[in-house]
Design a protein that fits this description.
With 377 residues, the chain is an alpha+beta fold. It folds into 2 domains: 216 residues, Endonuclease III, domain 1, CATH 1.10.340.30; 132 residues, Nucleoside Triphosphate Pyrophosphohydrolase. The protein contains 15 helices and 7 strands. The radius of gyration is 25 Å and the shape is elongated. It starts with 8 loop residues before the first helix and ends in a 5-residue tail after the last helix.
Length: 377
């Protein structure tokens, strides 16, 4: 990326025009969202964490539910981790919820329960990166910091016709410098939200709505007809697919569930035990091996129950689920953090990955009964 001369009068004139036109458009057209009706830094912070890699319509019900359960930093700090994960269930990227709770504990312990306005202090909290710090502090406290998410990066790349690959570290650094130079000292939060709003609704990844753009006259990509060709990204690697053998392991009328290792993907959530099928292995053999490795449990694998397909950002999985009967003997936590023998109707009390919720539905659990048991163990 050619280095923009940020102090040059021509750049400053363009920046001034962008601010005036975009902020005027934002005042007239911004969406009425719950986190825009508050100055509470905690509520703004929760929204910004939820919105990372997640669309607004998906976030809205989770945001309302989360704040009903944890309306303050202190309420979140005092809640058990399993309760927080259960309320977050289905939103994905569960590490975000765990880091929010860890950060809340730090705020209560070290800052009297008040979200710190100091950029260095806030940025040191668990899970807070440069984007989160810029977004929360600019919106809640008026600190003139940039907030460069995917939408904002795409908008700035098009405004200045950046044709270099934006996945390169030097280009990302230059984009942050440019974003910071555009942030006004007055109402920086409105500016950051306006840029992101433009990227979300007008300057979209494909088919940007340039005729509706309030700043198209200041956009070099539009002027040069490049808006459909940038940003330039590295070619995506093919997403791998794996098969997982899953055991619905019965002992009498109870079924086994296991808590995933804290450091693993989906750490802290509960699941039906199983794991990746090895080359040359049948699914039944995989289930037997995984139950022995994970729980020190011998099982007899019975009939096939259901196949569940699920896609993550970096991986596609097919869960091949089989009923199984546990042999006598005590199960032990070898590859998991905890395990329980529970009645099927109780499983909905535990925080589960989306794929395991689908398995639960395939078990035919009465949904009304599951809702009645929706409190945590």
């Amino acid at each position: 990326m050619r280095r923009l001369r940020l102090s040059h009068p021509a750049f400053q004139a363009r920046a001034k025009a962008l601010r005036q036109k975009l902020l005027a458009w934002y005042r007239r057209n911004r969406r009425d969202l719950p986190w825009r009706r508050t100055h509470d830094p905690y509520r703004i912070w929760v929204a910004e964490v939820m919105l990372q890699q997640t669309q607004v319509p998906t976030v809205l019900p989770y945001y309302r539910r989360f704040l009903r359960r944890f309306p303050t930093v202190r309420a979140l700090e005092s809640a058990p981790e399993q309760t927080v994960l259960k309320v977050w269930q289905g939103l994905g990227y569960y590490r975000r919820a765990m880091n929010l709770r860890r950060a809340a504990r730090t705020i209560v312990r070290d800052h009297g329960g008040r979200v710190p306005a100091d950029p260095a202090v806030f940025a040191a909290l668990p899970g807070v990166g440069r984007y989160t710090a810029g977004a929360v502090l600019s919106i809640a406290f008026g600190v003139p910091l940039a907030a460069l998410d995917g939408n904002a990066a795409r908008v700035i790349v098009r405004w200045f016709a950046v044709t270099d690959c934006i996945d390169k570290a030097r280009v990302r650094r230059a984009l942050w410098e440019t974003a910071a130079s555009l942030v006004p000292k007055r109402l920086p939060g409105n500016w950051n939200q306006a840029v992101m709003e433009l990227g979300s609704r007008i300057c979209t990844p494909r088919g940007p709505r340039c005729p509706a753009c309030p700043v198209r006259g200041e956009c070099l990509a539009y002027e040069r007809g490049l808006q459909e060709n940038i940003p330039v990204r590295r070619a995506r690697r093919k997403v791998p697919h794996i098969e997982v053998g899953v055991g619905i392991v019965w002992r009498g009328r109870r079924v086994l569930i296991c808590k995933r290792r804290r450091e693993a993907m989906l750490g802290g959530l509960w699941e039906f035990p199983g794991g990746k099928r090895d080359p040359g292995e049948t699914i039944q053999q995989c289930v037997r091996r995984e139950l022995k490795e994970e729980c020190d449990l011998q099982v007899t694998v019975g009939r096939h129950m259901v196949d569940v397909m699920h896609a993550y950002s970096h991986l596609r999985v097919t869960l091949r689920c089989y009923h199984a009967t546990a042999a006598p003997g005590r199960a032990r936590c070898l590859g998991c953090d905890d395990l329980r023998w529970v009645r099927p109707s109780e499983i909905a009390r535990f925080p589960l990955p989306v794929a395991d919720v689908k398995i639960l539905e395939a078990l035919g659990i009465d949904r009304a009964a599951a809702r009645r048991n929706a409190s945590l163990p």
